[in-house]
Amino acid sequence: xxxxxxxxxxxxxMLRNERMPEGxxxxxxxxxxxxxxxxxxxxxxxxxxxxxVSVEQLLAWSDEPGLLxxxxxxxxxxxxxxxxxxxxxxGFTKDCDVDIRFSAKIELRRRGELSDLASPVxxxxxxx
Length: 128
Description:
The protein is mostly helical. It is built from 5 helices and no strands.
């Protein structure tokens, strides 16, 4: 989501279809949603990600909720977060979906409207 935000989706197979990574043997990608083909499809995505950002950056992002490039629901569905007003963004910070809350808070922080929080998302308590 962070490296290719303009893509229509971010599942492993969607990335395969949209990005068409170099060196991928299409026959080895099938059947989708099986361990070996999915692992095979993941490798070129990881290679390409590591050619753009460091492994440390990827690990840091993996500790955070997803940064959604577009609003996933409601009247503004599909639009970038930058199109929303502050009040609408604040409303999304109360959503039950952690990715939506995180994305709205990041947009508020980008605008300078949310500078008082040390972290843009509260961490869920462990069950064990």
